[in-house]
Request: fold
Amino acid sequence: MKALVLSGGRGSRLRPLTFTLAKQLIPVANRPILGYVLDQVAEAGVKDVGVIIAPETGGYVKEYVKDGAHWGFNVTYILQEPLGLAHAVKTANEFLRKEDFVMCLGDNLQGQGIVSFVEKFEKEGLDALILLKEVDDPSKFGVAMLDEKGNIIKLVEKPKEPISNLAIVGTYLFSNKIHDAIERIKPSWRGELEITDAIQEMINLGYKVKAEILKTWWLDTGKKDDVLAANAKILDEYIKREIEGETVNSTVEGRVKIEKDAKIVNSTIRGPAVVGGSCQIENSFIGPYTSVGKNTKIKNSNIEYCVIMENAQIIDVDRIEESLIGRYAKVTKNNRKNTIRLHLGDYSEVEV
Reply:
């Protein structure tokens, strides 16, 4: 079995960060989201991985994944214009050939690995196995309708009137019959080849298509609040107390990871939280569910429930919460009363 990991797309809902960074590389708990996805692929024993990349941001993905040796697999990079998930499969035809494969979205995180799903797919000789998850707002996702035996009857991509509350999770397993189905479908109203249409065509053709409902959490990190939620979930489940940096006249409470060469002075760090290597934190409070990227400087500030990427500066700010702050960003206090001074890129958001 091979794997196809999608790490392209434009990431328009996360601009301006995604003008200069693939959305799959935005960190949670100081590690790119894509890294967690690749961990699960490697855990399933897959040794041949195709990574879909976009023309604008593919170089950043290559720089992170390299040749895949960190995960113990071989990597083939596949360039794709973002024209739908089924189009990504079609673009990867030469890599996939006639083999079964698992397809994962590089910006989706789930609390359960894929090993059991691969085993079910292979044991039952399926042509497709689709993961589903109950959601509150099905109109944001591709959704599936099941019969009383759990078989998929119908799939619809982001329906205006949802047919069920079962969203399609960003993990799919396919036999080579998916290629036949993709050749038979046409672009949707969005101008994309939809994977939901391809799976529906597999059902229409009588192929063996089954669904599995995910029992644990799943997060599609397409927007700022989703990234913050994913950061909180990863910190909550995986971070252990590990103090490698230096603390001076400071309090470190709970499950906090302070990486090598970080220095904490006259400050309080309350977990779960992670502070990257070579950070300088002085006279500040870093609250729960916060990740601070490496080489970041924080002084005289209070921060909680945030993702702060590497090389940022936050100085003399009374309180920041529920914020996603990009690389090399600078946030400082203005000493002029009732005055706000801004230097913002396209698509930035500010709440004051």
Observations:
- Residues 239-332 form a domain with the UDP N-Acetylglucosamine Acyltransferase; domain 1 fold (CATH 2.160.10.10).
- The chain has two domains: 2-233, 239-332.
- The helical segments are 33-43, 58-65, 85-91, 93-96, 115-123, 177-184, 195-204, 224-238.
- The mean pLDDT is 87.
